[in-house]
Amino acid sequence: MSIKKVMVIGAGQMGSGIAQVCAMAGYEVVLQDLKDEFLERGMNNISKNLQRQVDKGRMNDDEKARVLSNMKTSTDIQSANSVDLVIEAAVENMEIKSNIFAQLDEIAPAHAILATNTSSLPITEIAAVTNRPEKVIGMHFMNPVPVMKLVEIIRGLATTDEVYQAIEEMTKKLNKVPVEVNDFPGFVSNRILMPMINEAIYTVYEGVAEPEAIDEVMKLGMNHPMGPLTLADFIGLDTCLSIMEVLHEGFGDDKYRPCPLLRKYVKAGWLGRKTGRGFYKYD
Ligand code: CAA
């Protein structure tokens, strides 16, 4: 199973990061989104990231140009008709993802692997809308994608060893570290990370300490690069809430109940960095 050409669906923060690391590793990349303006924003981000590498002397102008020349953009999902792998990084909504995978199954060549960067939706359920569940797999990148080493690789119930190995090998070529995980709510990363973040929010809610103090405890006491509330704002509080809901519903265990303060912030539109306000205020 040789992977040469990759389509990334979704030019947001995750999709553009994934497209960037694929192009840097020499893959031919098509970045796809619904509107040209989304693609322009994604490509601008990629350009800025590459320029930072040039400014730091880690890449020269020719290498930057070569990476960009590996990339094309498209607003047409039909562009999947000539790729070996699709990595879907659209919004975290089962209906939208199911719709995309049903279309991809029709359009992509029979040999193509269909991967999703979902942070918590069941791979097996996404695979079930296709006629090739054995070729559907989770590739969960971490934010910021160009910096974070981990890719959690999630096998759906039907994913074959051959497909798993092809994706594992590709992940290594991206200069990332693959970790194999089975398909259960939140996988490993978010099953452990999100309850910690939710507990930090309960700690604010119950007046145990201010957000700054909670983050300081975890940064200085546990050597975390960011405190849990800064991290929640970075991930997006809407994403944190939806992952807690997947855990709560998926396990039916009240230990995963989302904190009421998290719900309140999301209802208020305080979604973290992207809206300028979450547990902290941003310019
Ligand atoms: N895109 C690209 N590069 C970035 C970046 C971005 N958004 N943000 C920072 N960087 C780069 C910087 O350019 C810098 O690069 P060099 O070392 O080459 O100079 C490097 O990252 C370090 O950045 P800074 O010195 O500015 O800041 P820092 O040391 O605080 O590191 C951080 C920033 C890497 C984000 C660090 O704070 C960190 O690791 N935070 C935790 C991130 C984390 O936990 N991510 C996982 C979130 S959960 C998730 O993604 C999964 C999910 O499903 C929700």
What ions, cofactors and ligands are bound?
Answer: acetoacetyl-coenzyme A
Low-confidence stretches: none
| CATH topology type of the largest domain | Rossmann fold
CATH architecture designation of the largest domain: 3-Layer(aba) Sandwich
Q: Let me know the largest β-sheet.
A: 8 strands, mixed
Helix and strand pattern: EHEHHEEHEHEEHEHHHHH
Count of alpha and pi helical runs: 11
What is the molecular shape? Answer: globular
CATH homologous superfamily designation of the largest domain: NAD(P)-binding Rossmann-like Domain
**Total strands:** 8
| Count of domain modules | 2
Given this structure, which CATH class of the largest domain is correct? Alpha Beta
Question: How are the strands of the biggest sheet laid out side by side?
Answer: 3-2-1-4-5-6-7-8
* Beta-strand proportion: 5-15%
